[in-house]
Amino acid sequence: MSERTLKADFENRAPSEHPSRWNDLWVEGFTPWDRGLPSPALLELLTERPELLPVSGSTNTGKKLKALVPGCGKGYEVLLLSAFGYDAYGLDVSEKALEFAREHEKEMGSQEVYKTREGVERGKVAWLCGDFFTSDVFKDVQDFETGFDFIYDYTFLCALPLSLRSKWSQRQNELLAPGGRLMCLEFPTNKPTNSGGPPWPLPPKIYQALLPRPGVELKYDDQGVLVESELGPPSPKGLMALAHYQPKKTHKAGYDAEGKLMDFVSIWGHNDSA
């Protein structure tokens, strides 16, 4: 019997069917993307790379900074950001995933990784069920119009069909506050470009093409390789890459068969507030 794959689950399904299918998979307990713990790369950023975190010029100065984790699943990173003082919002299209997230939140007090650091007041946690691409899902977010100071993207872009990538770049641009930071944990970077998905192959150059050009459709050849020669210039309103590096460690899925770390971290901000 062949091993079940996410690709097979989504093959021949229209993008409009994807949200309900993700929920079905949570109900069925088939969740190969669930890592079981917060991202080591995010923890590294929060503890060792403060120069890459949101700047003091954020529109939310004087209030707790707001963080968003789209496609949050069980909410490991949401709870971690809360422990570092952010008002943290976990967004998912699956209500079943958020049921698990609420259960995990009740248990987090027993886990060392979620302990607040000295002098840090824990931020609030909120769970949002709905579509990342609509504003309705954010109707209960306080001061939503100011944007989010920190957005964490991992196993979210790679779960989206290619037809939604331009909308993803546009939405990240819209949701990120002036002075805010978008962290992309780039994955999977070493998957063959013609292998399909989800998870869809995402070498770093895809992020580097998308985010400076919000809303622009990218072109790929018949092997799924980005046609870089047809990229237009970056938009003045696009996001700017502030850092690109490999973390010290990442989830097990981010290593190749020989044990080489393949994930990258990119940090992005608005051109006029970097």
TrEMBL record:
Domain of life: Eukaryota
A Pfam family that the UniProt record links to this protein: TPMT
Keyword check for Repeat: no
Methyltransferase among keywords: yes
A GO MF term: S-adenosylmethionine-dependent methyltransferase activity
InterPro entries: SAM-dependent_MTases_sf, TPMT
Keywords carried by this UniProt record: Methyltransferase, Phosphoprotein, S-adenosyl-L-methionine, Transferase
CDD domains assigned: AdoMet_MTases
Identification of the protein by name: Thiol methyltransferase
Lineage: Eukaryota, Fungi, Dikarya, Ascomycota, Pezizomycotina
